[in-house]
Design brief:
Blueprint (H helix, E strand, L loop, with lengths): L6 E10 L2 E11 L4 E5 L6 H8 L7 E6 L2 E2 L5 H6 L2 E4 L11 H13 L4 H11 L1 H5 L10 H13 L5 E5 L7 H16 L3 E6 L3 H6 L2 E6 L2 E7 L3 H14 L1
Parallel strand pairs: 3-8, 3-9, 6-7, 7-8
Antiparallel strand pairs: 1-2, 1-4, 4-5, 9-10
Helix pairs in contact: 3-4, 3-6, 6-7
């Protein structure tokens, strides 16, 4: 481990074919920090998350992890460096049980000898999964599937967890449970990049906030100063 930022994006631009999504984005995440990336739908937040985990390559600028240039690295190299990405949606094996989903993931990431401990930790983070361990994942509610996909990466204790649109389509009580689990994993030393459209949970969890607008950083600062800025900015954007 070094004193370098876990993640540093410097003047990053990104494109999807002819469509340019990011314009000179710079973002720094320090060890153990929690940073919220906020903005309206279509602002480019998910593209930042994908660049930060190697799913999308930057067309300009640089991406470093622990001081190592990862600008042209493959996704698996980001994973080896300790960057985990929990994407928007529900990435589960629908015909496998909850426990089979977790076991498959933990056997690959942790080794056979640590599967049992991994399962115990997953059920401690998300007790609802323990109650449904024998249920097929495809029959879980949307929120429970989200918990399952989150548990698979959180138990691995990455250096940085990138969580994309956690609250999207979930009931408030489920969002509360997911954010409680994020707070727990942060206490173990994992840094967080929380990509959100809905503001309050992210502000409560995070120390720092970056506001993205039309693919560029519009404001950065401490979470304690962010609420009025974010609400005013997003309200003005909707009215424009």
């Amino acid at each position: 481990m070094t004193d370098a930022p876990i993640l540093e994006l410097t003047d990053v631009s990104a494109e999807y074919g002819p469509f340019r999504s990011l314009f000179g984005v710079s973002l720094t995440i320090r060890p153990g920090a929690a940073v919220a990336l906020l903005g309206a739908n279509g602002a480019g937040k998910t593209t930042v998350a994908r660049v930060a985990s190697g799913l999308v390559s930057a067309s300009a600028g640089s991406v470093t992890v622990d001081g190592t240039d990862m600008t042209e690295a493959r996704t698996y190299e980001f994973a080896r460096a300790g960057v985990a990405h929990a994407p928007e949606g529900r990435s589960v094996f629908a015909t496998f049980t909850v426990e089979e989903n977790l076991t498959l993931s933990f056997r690959r990431a942790l080794g056979r000898s640590r599967v049992k401990a991994g399962l115990e930790e997953a059920y401690a983070l998300f007790p609802r999964l323990g109650e449904r361990r024998s249920q097929t994942a495809g029959t879980l509610s949307g929120g429970e599937q989200r918990m399952l996909s989150m548990a698979r990466v959180m138990v691995e204790k990455p250096r940085l967890l990138i969580a994309d649109e956690l609250s999207l389509g979930l009931a408030p009580i489920v969002v509360d449970e997911v954010y409680e689990a994020l707070e727990t994993i942060r206490k173990t030393g994992t840094a967080l990049l929380i990509v959100e459209q809905h503001v309050q949970h992210a502000l409560d969890l995070c120390d720092e906030v970056a506001l993205l607008d039309h693919g560029a950083i519009a404001w950065e600062g401490p979470a304690s100063e962010a609420a009025e800025v974010v609400v005013t900015h997003m309200f003005d954007r909707e009215d424009s």
